[in-house]
TrEMBL record, chains A, B:
Pfam family, one: PRMT5_TIM
Organism for this UniProt entry: Glossina fuscipes
Keyword tags: Methyltransferase, S-adenosyl-L-methionine, Transferase
Name listed for the protein in its UniProt record: Protein arginine N-methyltransferase
Record flagged with keyword S-adenosyl-L-methionine: yes
Highest rank taxon of the organism: Eukaryota
Gene assigned in the entry: LOC119642873
Keyword ATP-binding: no
Active-site annotation: E414, E423
Family label: Belongs to the class I-like SAM-binding methyltransferase superfamily.
PRMT5 arginine-N-methyltransferase domain mapped to chain residues: 278-443
GO BP terms: methylation; regulation of DNA-templated transcription
Gene3D superfamilies assigned to the protein according to its UniProt record, in alphabetical order: Divalent-metal-dependent TIM barrel enzymes, Hnrnp arginine n-methyltransferase1, Vaccinia Virus protein VP39
Site residues (Critical for specifying symmetric addition of methyl groups), renumbered to this chain: F305
């Protein structure tokens, strides 16, 4: 459940603050860990009576309230990266003590620390050793002086450039790299007064583990009815982070009387702009791609796919268009069209074909070919009960071994995976095209895969997680396995480093004298902003017939199509890339008698090893 | 959520059966996978049209209904262990086909297979290779002929013995041993008509992964009001399995009109006799024992312990009794009793002492000693705010290093772990007794640990699970680690092979000239019934003062005491033990300067390696 948090400093009474927050529509509070600042002069013989006065007593709230209702803010006075060794050491000690106290209060709760500048290396070192729960890292969305400087005329070009380099994303980036992408760390973005916030900057943050945004109450303006609202430009920013499921924190002082107005406004804004959908639980979850050629799909999987509201309608339209092109109105009474459905599953494509025939009044004979014996049971019942008056014929066969009584006018198949060819549609259709008349039609007739480089901290950590879990199960696996595998993922928390470009193309039927389905292509993507390259996203577009296409490429995505999530090909190590550099991706599709696999690597801005060499970590079985 | 399942054979219409079940108070159905028996003569060219008539179509129910509302029963005609190789091979093929079909219908659902005799080795082999979801293994509670034979006078003693050996638990045991304790397998116990069911037999099944019991409708008798009820003896059996959270299946034929009466009766019976409590989620879950000496406890843990409704009342009573014994009524005005609370946490024992003083009108001075700096903050606030008029003094110290202004009359501590001495109360109290006057009192004054051998399939599999997970995280760990560790567990699904016997005793203060807290003891437990020894359960009893005791030993358990769960010391391999054998357990408490640990092994009925030798897998740090 997303939360709305009230952040307030200088409250001696936390339970009253919680009460006030609740009354005003906030379900969480953020408050300083120490009611008063503990002096930086660290006292060695410690924790004496006087000490307790600086903080809240743990009995003030229940353990449950500490855990689920409060974000504890660490003091801003500490400076673990001070050049003064006394200040640095005292800061380290106080930080340790405060984190120990915060974790005493919270059993896996939330601690917030604020980054105030680029240099935080020693802080990262100290804090990573300590935290057991979640560490929220507060970073300004912009470096305000730098952002403002762009508009100042009194600065030299160099001075502006220098200020621009103080990118707050780099504050975070250096901090979390030092902490080795620790998955307990999450970003809290602080909105600050900048005239024109750039959405490009905001989009980059979506590739990070974004927990929340902090909206200072002075960012609100009054509308004509005198209600507080956010300026238009900030509404765009908020919309963007809400799509990434960020929570909202409002920072106010204790005298602010508009709390309820803020929460009403934000609650309403969130209800309108949040991205709620039925597939939410799949977001950023790694799934092993299906191998329907090797494994038989089950009832549950068939049911999910059959529910796609768009796919089978597109197929029906494609078959109808092909029928009309092949059989003129005058030929309708005499001309029979033979349609073969290759890999019929539980029959949705057969229905599409029968509907298309009925709508166009064309006469058809349907050969249904399916290799899964469990699906054959269902098809067999359908043939008997639903299609007993139709000219349909069921064959329990692998399409590659099928010898038909006659050749087909139209082959219909849905062997496409998230990456187009990754469920071996080229291999299957090449082999099946002997079933097709020389002037016959394949639906689909063309498929193209697309890729682009992306940044996603979440996916980087998800792959690390899978990697160590799988290492547990199978000690034979090298540590590389699973860090080099292609996954199916509903991409959400990502930053697109470049726009997807077309990769491999396959045409059906393939009339080449010698058919070669291996491929190799090199693509260049210019880097628009400093970021971390974690992997490659993959998509496909497929032409069913004529101009009827289905696509999961973000630029051309078919509206309502839900059957396919994108692919994700990780790099084993995250790679820092700089604005202006070129990412040069090499991608191979490799084919042997028994298996098909992909390999990928970079040669710019630096050279990586070739991932999944020889298909060692993942491949698709041909048999 | 526990379910009530209606089992019926010979239903052509499953959706109507689900509807009928729901109307009559059953939320799940069990029905044969095949609507008609598929002939055992296996047809090689398979899965043809005719074939589909034998089973249900997958479109009959939604994927969700197949998964959550149905238990699919495999055919009883298959005989994978037939001596006729043709029957055996055909059975294997049909079993594979049927499981493939069942798993096509159910995405991780429930398949039921019935064991009909002792010999099921080949069945176990075939089935373990196939199942992906849960396999329910139906076994009669008794072997009915064997059970009845005990009462027959025409059989020779030998014949009776032979029949008795046909123990249905052994049918299951051999089956699951062949399947290597596969955690996807669960037991479904079939009640059958036996005059006097033995609760001992039933209790042994509680150590197994018990999913459900099947009550055939003919087991019901009519009470005076003509309502169906279970006979008294069977009520006892049902009560016993309900305590272990077994689900209930009622087996009837299609003409039975009393369905609603059965479900009402059973629902009501379950509501009365189920074991629902707030700690349910902890049952059979392995927890790493706390090491409060090494780790500081957090706010959440303190809060849990402080909530114990019994513990601090017992301490208060013990302190009161000691005060009265030490200070006669006439001495009240003059005599001050010095109480030291060692390891005060957030002060519950201080409250017990102050209450005891107030109730007995004795004058006390309290020294509070605590080493956790976070708890000191709370204590410090309490001293200031709650106890400012009392004679209390706070010291932020490890009790082993504390130099008091004066010696104590009474030392109060709660350093007891689930096994008594496993949080190092002996070491701490021995060291602290220099704080005590020579005639002073320690509360507690004596602790004794208890052990007994147990069978628990669930815990055996839980340890295997932890073991492979931890191997993932820490590649340095040997594969033994975690299979040799002591755990804290709320024991539930266990069979007590013998009654707990006393193991180690510690007395405080310990006036021995040379104190030695290492121990070694050998205990013998006769085996009452064939079973599998998986580990050793551990408990403690502690005398606070005089006759005031707290105990988690099942035989003497203090009513309402919830602060401690038992210990569990696993054996790395499960060991089959036979009625009449003696289990001889050797148990050591070992002490070095830096750590304390336990070792354990068997020398009868066979010899195991010494577990946790040298504390290699688990130990308690002294500092």
């Amino acid at each position: 459940m997303p939360y709305l948090c009230l952040m307030q400093e200088g409250n001696a009474n936390l339970s009253r603050l919680i009460e006030r927050a609740n009354l005003n529509g906030f379900n969480v509070i953020a408050a300083p860990l120490n009611a008063m600042e503990i002096p930086l002069e660290f006292q060695k013989e410690p924790m004496n009576k006087a000490d307790s006065k600086f903080t809240y007593g743990d009995l003030l709230l229940t353990a449950d309230q500490w855990n689920t209702k409060t974000i504890l803010m660490l003091s801003e006075l500490m400076d673990c990266d001070s050049i003064d060794p006394v200040v640095r050491k005292n800061s380290e000690e106080i930080l340790k003590r405060d984190i120990s106290w915060a974790e005493h209060l919270q059993y896996g709760g939330y601690i917030l620390i604020k980054l105030r500048r680029a240099k935080n290396l020693n802080l990262a070192r100290v804090i990573t050793q300590q935290i057991k729960g979640v560490l929220l890292v507060q970073v300004p969305l912009y470096n305000a002086p730098a952002a403002h400087a762009v508009w100042r005329r009194d600065l030299s070009e160099e001075e502006v450039l220098d200020l621009e380099q103080q990118d707050t994303w780099q504050w975070w980036n250096r901090f979390r790299r030092a902490a080795d992408f620790n998955s307990k760390m999450k970003v809290v973005l602080e909105f600050n007064e900048v005239e024109r916030p750039s959405l490009d900057i905001v989009r980059r943050w979506v590739g990070e583990p974004l927990e929340a945004v902090i909206i200072p109450s002075n960012l609100f303006i009054r509308n004509r009815q005198k209600y507080p609202v956010l300026p238009k430009a900030w509404q765009q920013v908020l919309k963007c982070v809400l799509q990434a499921h960020a929570n909202i924190v409002v920072a106010t002082d204790a005298n602010d009387n508009s709390l309820k107005l803020y929460s009403d406004y934000l609650q309403n804004f969130r209800d309108i702009h949040k991205d709620a959908h039925s597939l939410e639980s799949f977001e950023d979850v790694l799934e092993i791609p299906l191998q329907p050629l090797y494994d038989n799909l089950d009832c549950y999987t068939y049911e999910i796919f059959e529910r796609d509201p768009v796919k089978y309608k597109m197929y029906q339209d494609a078959i109808a268009a092909a029928l009309i092109d092949r059989v003129s109105d005058s030929e309708i009474p005499d001309k029979l069209t033979v349609i073969m459905v290759l890999g019929a599953g539980r029959g949705p494509l057969v229905r599409s074909a029968l509907n298309a025939a009925e709508n166009t009044k064309r006469k058809i004979r349907v050969y249904i070919i399916e290799k899964n014996p469990n699906a054959i049971r269902t098809l067999s019942a359908m043939v008997d009960e639903l299609w007993s008056t139709k000219d349909v014929h069921l064959f329990s066969k692998d399409m590659r071994e099928f010898s038909p009584p006659e050749q087909a006018d139209i082959l219909v198949s849905e062997l496409l995976g998230s990456f187009g060819d990754n469920e071996l549609s080229p291999e299957c259709l090449d082999c099946a095209q002997r079933l097709l008349k020389t002037d016959g039609i394949s639906i689909p007739c063309k498929s193209i895969s697309y890729i682009n480089p992306i940044m996603s901290s979440k996916l980087y950590n998800a792959v690390r997680q899978v990697r160590s879990e799988s290492f547990a199960r199978d000690k034979q696996a090298t540590y590389l396995t699973h860090a080099e595998s292609g996954y199916v993922v509903l991409l959400k928390s990502i930053y697109n480093i470049g726009v997807p470009q077309s990769l491999f193309e396959f045409v059906h039927p393939n009339r080449d004298p010698i058919i070669d389905n291996s491929r190799y292509k090199i693509l260049n993507f210019p880097v628009e902003a400093d970021c971390i390259l974690t992997g490659i996203a993959g998509y496909f577009e497929s032409t069913l017939y004529s101009d009827i296409k289905i696509s999961i490429n973000p630029s051309t995505h078919t509206h309502g199509l839900v059957s396919w999530f994108p692919m994700y090909f990780p790099f084993t190590e995250p790679l820092e890339v700089i604005k202006g550099q070129i990412i040069k991706i090499h991608f191979w599709r490799c084919v042997s008698k028994k298996k098909v696999w992909y390999e990928w690597c970079l040669t710019s801005p630096s050279t990586t090893h070739i991932h999944n060499l020889g298909g060692r970590s993942c491949h698709i079985y041909c048999t």
